[in-house]
Amino acid sequence: MPRKPLPDLSVVLTFLREGQGWSQADLGRAAGTSPSLLNDYEGGRKKLTRQRLEHLISFMGLRPERIDATLTCLEANRADSRALSDPADRSAESRRHVEAVAGRAGRLATDFARSVLSLLTLEGEGLYERQRADFLWTRLKRRSPDERLALVEDSKKFRSWALCERVAAESIEAAAEDPAKALELAGLALRIAELAPGEEGWRRRLQGYAGAFVANAHRVNGNLPGAAKAFSRASKLWEAGAPGDSGLLNEAWIPWIEAYLCGEQQRLPMALKRIDDALAADRGHLRAKILLTKSRILEIQGNLEASTAILREAASLIDVDRDSRSALGVRFQLLVNLCLQDGATEAEQWLGEVRELAGRFGKELDLVRMVWLEGSVWTGVGRTAEAIAAFEQVRREFANRGIAFDYALVSLELSLVLLDQGRTEEVRKIADEMLWIFRNQKVHREALAALQVFCDAAKREAATAKLARSVFLFLHRAQHDSELRFEAGKEAETP
């Protein structure tokens, strides 16, 4: 007597599970379900609903569409079997011919549909996986670094490409405030990539992607040799995995991160080239942020006018409500540039919006720099008393935090205002208060040499506004280029 056929969804679960190389025990651990219940589902002893099946296969990284595709295949097999079931039937040959033609037509239709809908399918998969990654990240972020790594090592559901992408992005977010955390998260993203399911080519591509973020994290930690080594390895993996890339990852990240690294290495022409490569590869999501990086490279090169033009473009691309942090970064730097180019009147019009954005985040250092920017704007529009008070407040904050380079810059801005009023005795006092900077290891030799020229003149009460401005503009560029040379007595020029 023939065995009662299994329910279709039971067959689909068995097919998909075994096709992914998962045992019932593996799936049970990932989904929080007992293997015996899974066995009952697959054996038809317990009813398996479509909703429950979608939930189970999600832990194997599969979309609901795979259920429909498997059911279609199952029905096609049954149709073929029916056509051949009665050899004595005189119409069997005709039916076989019809089935063959239908099969070929179906394949053609499928190929056409695949070619038309591949982009939509890709976007759909990306959206689904990224939504899952958001959920998984909420679980990971509450854990300690060791616990996060243990979850990735022990559970397959924490090994998706989308979670790798999400953790890598979190590394970027952490870089400015917590470089050590940025490195930990980038390393976690790389481990997820190493354990991710899929063919070898795809996993290499994913490892190359995550490895670039590791390189960036080394860079923000001040380890340029480590960053260069990590990026070299990542680049090789990225290129080796290119044939296996389905287009889910944003390729713009790789040249963008390399551009940052080239900038730190003072390879500015290469940095600009890679920035342009990143802009060409970007799908629109990162354009404003990439433009911000380009503006900084142009600023380092001394092309402040071009840098400001790029910032204007970037500011126009960012939705303030959807990406407030990026909006703050771009607008803040635009106002700094405007002040350096005697554009304080225009900068004042933006000041309220930038101040409100800075207040949203509540980060102390952001707010300190906001006061500094206000001082620069007020200097340019003639609100001298308010500018002096702002600069004094910022100097105290930077001194308390030991932020030497910025302390020197704001001290020079304050000196400019005081020298314009002939208050040379107060400037001499500022020079005395800057002595601690010369013992700080984070200020490079050329910057110290320029600062020494100003301090020596101030102590003789011979410092001029022209000299203060010349040293200030030099330090503004030299903070990104330690090889820049200061020429004492050179006319102060806007970089």
Topology of helices and strands:
Elements (H helix, E strand, L loop, with lengths): L7 H12 L4 H8 L3 H8 L7 H9 L6 H19 L8 H49 L4 H10 L6 H15 L3 H17 L4 H21 L3 H17 L12 H12 L3 H14 L5 H14 L3 H14 L6 H17 L3 H18 L2 H17 L3 H18 L2 H17 L3 H10 L11 H15 L5 H14 L17
Helix pairs in contact: 1-4, 1-5, 2-3, 5-6, 6-8, 7-9, 8-9, 8-10, 9-10, 10-11, 10-12, 11-12, 12-13, 13-14, 14-15, 15-16, 16-17, 16-18, 17-18, 18-19, 19-20, 20-21, 20-23, 21-22, 22-23
Describe this structure in words.
This protein is mostly helical. The chain has a domain at 8-81: lambda repressor-like DNA-binding domains (434 Repressor (Amino-terminal Domain), Orthogonal Bundle), CATH 1.10.260. It is 74% helix and 0% strand. It contains 23 helices and no strands. The protein has helices at residues 8-19, 24-31, 35-42, 50-58, 65-83, 92-140, 145-154, 161-175, 179-195, 200-220, 224-240, 253-264, 268-281, 287-300, 304-317, 324-340, 344-361, 364-380, 384-401, 404-420, 424-433, 445-459, 465-478. Helix 19 (384-401) packs antiparallel against helix 20 (404-420) and helix 20 (404-420) packs antiparallel against helix 21 (424-433). The radius of gyration is 31 Å and the shape is elongated. It starts with 7 loop residues before the first helix and ends in a 17-residue tail after the last helix. Residues 83-91, 112-120 and 491-495 have low confidence and may be disordered.
